[in-house]
Amino acid sequence: MKKLTVVIPCYNESGNLPGLVQEIKEAVKKPDIEVVLVNNGSTDDSAFVLEALTKDAPLVRVVTVPENQGYGYGILRGLEAAEGNYVGWMHGDLQTPFKDVLYALSVIESLGEPEDIYVKGLRKGRPWFDQFFTLGMSVFESMLLGKKLYDINAQPNIFHRTFYEAWRNPPRDFSFDLYALYLARMKGLRLMRIPVIFPPRTHGQSHWDTGFASKIKFIKRTVAYSLELKKHIRTKVL
User: Fold this and answer.
1) Fewest Cβ atoms closer than 10 Å to its Cβ: which of 9, 56, 106, 141?
2) How far apart are CA 145 and CA 168, in angstroms?
3) Number of compact structural domains in the chain
4) Domain encompassing residue 128
5) Contact between residue 38 and residue 8 where contact means Cβ atoms under 8 Å apart
6) HSE toward the beta carbon, residue 213, CA cutoff 13 A
7) Residue 153, phi then psi, degrees to nearest 5
8) Is 37 left (phi over 0), alpha (psi -120 to 50) or beta?
9) Which three-class secondary structure state does DSSP give residue 119?
10) Residue 35 to residue 83: CA distance in whole angstroms
11) Rounded Cα distance, 201 and 170, in Å
12) What is the pLDDT of residues 73-108, one digit of tens each?
């Protein structure tokens, strides 16, 4: 078994893929770390680019989702293929340096590789409006769900595979990060936050954060899922 599997969902990220794969090759030097790149139903030339880039990258595997069914769905398909003792994910837009994943693993190793650990990024260097938006959502989610939740969508996320194997009914959309963090809080995992510098995108545009209107849509969708999650708390179906 590998020590760590990192899942990276990629949806129409062909412009970022060369830099991402090169970054992975330069960072991963040990055979017990693997990366699963998920072509999450891309409609650009991501499939061709991934095939060409990973031919000489034995520690990188590609999982293909024929039709995009959501951000969370892509991650779940990658986690199903994971062989690591520890598993997790990060975004494929180069806004989270891959070295932060290795730092997260070093934190776990320094603690003796416990099973009750959840290492998650804490974004730094973001525009003030994005920080304000994150703070507002964090306060709302914490009050609604009764657990301290902050910077919910920060990357990377790394934890022992036994935590993932205990999941029930995870969402397929961008509520996926909320589900994982909230469940970690509910199960009493030790949450370790690591600082991650959050630079602008190198190529393309975010597939959900395209302006104020998209943020309002995200808020509505997240609130709806949060209310559903709260209902599941009462019935203990997570």
Assistant:
1) 56
2) 18
3) 1
4) 2-235
5) yes
6) 2
7) -95, 10
8) beta
9) strand
10) 10
11) 28
12) 999 999 999 999 999 999 998 888 899 999 999 999
Output the six-digit token pair for 166: 């205990």
Structure-token pair, residue 183: 């469940």
Instruction: List 157's β-bridge partners, or say none.
Output: 89, 120
Instruction: Name the residue among 130, 141, 122 with its Cα closest to residue 179.
Output: 141
Residue type, 205: Q
Instruction: Give the tokens for residue 161.
Output: 């595979």
Return the CATH number at 208.
Answer: 3.90.550.10
DSSP per residue over 197-214, as a string?
E-PPPSSS--SS-SSHHH
Q: And the tokens for 26?
A: 């330069």
The answer to whether 139 and 210 have CB atoms below 8 angstroms apart is no
For residues 60 and 49, the answer to whether their CB atoms sit within 8 Å is no
Spacing of C-alpha 89 from chain mean position: 4
What's the CA gap between 227 and 36, in Å, rounded?
Answer: 32
178: tokens are: 């909320």
pLDDT, one tens digit per residue, over 130-172 is 899 899 999 999 999 999 999 999 999 999 999 999 999 899 9
One-letter amino acid at 20 equals: L
Cα 214 to Cα 112: distance, rounded to the nearest angstrom:
42
